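STRUCTURE:
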């Protein structure tokens, strides 16, 4: 574990590397002679300087993460360009392999750093800056210049044989001395950071309460579990180390002092356990199993002690299993009910009360059939549970009723618990209220399939019903009819009466159309002033003409909209299966042509599609 002081020293060392990084310019040692590569090197240097500016100015975390992402993406782009050049020109295979491996090493390190970027962005940025410095001195002055020399020689017409042994660019003395230092510092700093994060994560997520006490009694680290066990947050111990002693039960303080005394005498190899009680701020008493051992640094020097405290209250209370069950019950959002083999409730969790409004004392010993919207007899309930769980878990969506009478939809599962002989000893009922989820699903379905103004099916739903009707008609050898209804001169009417009254007009017309058709038929709004009607299972053609006449007459009746009387008419185009088409596309096209014919005839009429080749040609030419 890295202390705050050690971390400060690491940051100071890395700051020195950053300062040296930004002092190095792209001089002649870094110029390859390949214009695109040099330009990319310059752009990468700019991103590195931008990263340095973020670190120096303590930029917001999102700025650091954005620049890291940009640097990662541009580095990948740059490496791809270099590797394409290596593939396209006669480059020494050994140099090529070294070059590509260097790219892979850089990407691997970048990936390692990125895994820590969200939690330690400043450290990651600083380490990356230091590594980029080493990379620039090591890679750009050697491998990149060797690659460039070989490519330039190849472009000038030299053969691979004539270039053999020619291209060995040596780094300058300054780079040759600094590169190993940077490589060591980078690897060491990265390893320290990874180790720190790994150990800190383990300690932070440990079930036990862990802490590290320094030689002077100061608290260097306190795990978050301390608050769950003691009732005090880590910061409280960091500010007041003596709290570790004061929270111990007065009767156990002497034992703790003796334990600490033994540790000081034999610290180098001391490791022992002690069971003591602690008193929480609310007065609750907890048992803990306390153990500690000496901690040494890499040089073997004593740097403090590591203490581990495992709560042991449950064992002393003789209720380990009940405590575990209670913890699980309290932790889940689903209602959990445990019954005996006869289905009678033994216990239920807090979420059960929250969902159903029944208190535990009201339901213990009862059969859970009171939950169902329709109650079953005790015998039927038990039989259904045994049948459903006979082959394992049973899951379904069921309708339950709260104590206040309100019904709700629950995602329910039932499991049976069996003993070693296979006999059922308990049932476990788990459910959660999904009423809001189902309501959202219904709302989304409605928005996707129904017109918001009229409540009629929209084109999506109508098209689906049309295709289903066609499939049924083909099997039963019956007729269906498709009508397109278009309001005559609707734009002019809308301009005259305004948007609000136009909406009321469309709503009222939709109601009138519905009154003209059967329950088995479908009416839909498919456009601003367009409706469609699907007539199913037609035995007589007169049914079609009667419906069309009713719609024409109903639309002709005046509409009273906010005390204003409005008069309109509609045009109807009709296509019949199978006479006018056997597919949805054919029927829609022919009904549309018939509507066009009705409008061309002056409107306020219904036109049945017939052999209208001349109309089709006219519309195609137009």
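SEQUENCE:
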């Amino acid at each position: 574990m890295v202390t705050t002081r050690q971390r400060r020293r690491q940051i100071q060392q890395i700051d020195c590397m950053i300062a040296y990084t930004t002092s190095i310019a792209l001089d002649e040692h870094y110029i390859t002679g390949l214009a695109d590569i040099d330009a990319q090197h310059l752009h990468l240097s700019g991103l590195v300087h931008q990263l340095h500016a973020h670190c120096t100015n303590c930029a917001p975390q999102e700025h650091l993460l954005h620049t890291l992402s940009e640097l990662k993406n541009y580095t990948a782009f740059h490496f791809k360009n270099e590797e394409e050049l290596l593939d396209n020109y006669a480059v020494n295979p050994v140099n090529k392999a070294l070059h590509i491996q260097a790219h892979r090493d850089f990407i691997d390190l970048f990936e390692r750093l990125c895994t820590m970027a969200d939690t330690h962005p400043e450290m990651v940025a600083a380490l990356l800056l230091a590594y980029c410095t080493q990379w620039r001195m090591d890679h750009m002055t050697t491998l990149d210049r060797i690659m460039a020399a070989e490519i330039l020689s190849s472009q000038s017409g030299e053969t691979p044989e004539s270039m053999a042994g020619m291209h060995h660019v040596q780094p300058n003395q300054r780079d040759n001395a600094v590169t190993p230092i940077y490589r060591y510092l980078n690897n060491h700093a990265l390893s320290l950071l990874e180790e720190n994060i790994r150990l800190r994560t383990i300690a932070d997520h440990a079930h036990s309460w862990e802490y590290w006490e320094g030689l002077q009694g100061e608290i260097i680290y306190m795990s978050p579990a301390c608050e769950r066990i003691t009732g005090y947050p880590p910061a409280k111990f960091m500010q007041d180390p003596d709290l570790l002693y004061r929270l111990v039960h007065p009767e156990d303080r002497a034992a703790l002092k003796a334990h600490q005394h033994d540790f000081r005498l034999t610290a180098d190899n001391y490791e022992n356990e002690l069971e003591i009680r602690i008193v929480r701020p609310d007065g609750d008493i907890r048992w803990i199993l306390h153990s500690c051992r000496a901690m040494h640094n890499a040089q073997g020097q004593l740097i403090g002690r590591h203490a581990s405290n495992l709560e042991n209250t449950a064992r002393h209370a003789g209720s380990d299993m009940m405590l575990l069950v209670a913890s699980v019950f309290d932790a889940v959002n689903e209602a959990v009910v445990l019954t005996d083999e006869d289905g009678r409730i033994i216990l239920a969790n807090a979420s059960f009360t929250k969902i159903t409004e029944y208190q535990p004392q009201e339901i213990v010993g009862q059969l859970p059939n009171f939950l169902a919207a329709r109650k079953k007899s005790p015998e039927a309930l038990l039989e259904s549970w045994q049948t459903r769980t006979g082959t394992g878990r049973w899951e379904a969506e069921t309708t339950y009723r709260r104590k206040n009478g309100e019904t709700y939809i629950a995602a329910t599962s039932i499991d049976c618990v069996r003993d070693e002989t296979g006999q059922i000893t308990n049932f476990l009922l788990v459910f959660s209220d999904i009423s809001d989820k189902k309501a959202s699903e219904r709302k989304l379905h409605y928005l996707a399939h129904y017109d918001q103004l009229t409540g009629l099916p929209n084109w999506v739903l109508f098209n689906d019903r049309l295709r289903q009707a066609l499939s049924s008609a083909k099997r039963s050898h019956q007729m269906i009819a498709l009508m397109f209804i278009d309001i005559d001169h609707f734009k002019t009417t809308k301009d005259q009466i305004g948007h609000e009254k136009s909406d009321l007009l469309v709503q009222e017309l939709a109601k009138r159309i519905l009154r003209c058709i059967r329950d088995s038929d479908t009416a839909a709004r498919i456009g601003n002033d367009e409706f469609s009607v699907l007539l199913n299972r037609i035995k007589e053609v007169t049914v079609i003409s009667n419906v069309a006449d009713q719609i024409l007459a109903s639309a002709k009746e005046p509409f009273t909209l906010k005390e204003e009387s409005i008069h309109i008419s509609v045009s109807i185009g009709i296509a019949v299966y199978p006479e006018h088409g056997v597919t949805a596309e054919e029927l829609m096209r022919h009904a549309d042509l018939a509507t066009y014919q009705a409008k061309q005839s002056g409107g306020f009429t219904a036109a049945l599609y017939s052999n209208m080749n001349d109309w089709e040609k006219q519309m195609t030419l137009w």
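REMARK: The first strand starts at residue 209 and ends at 213.
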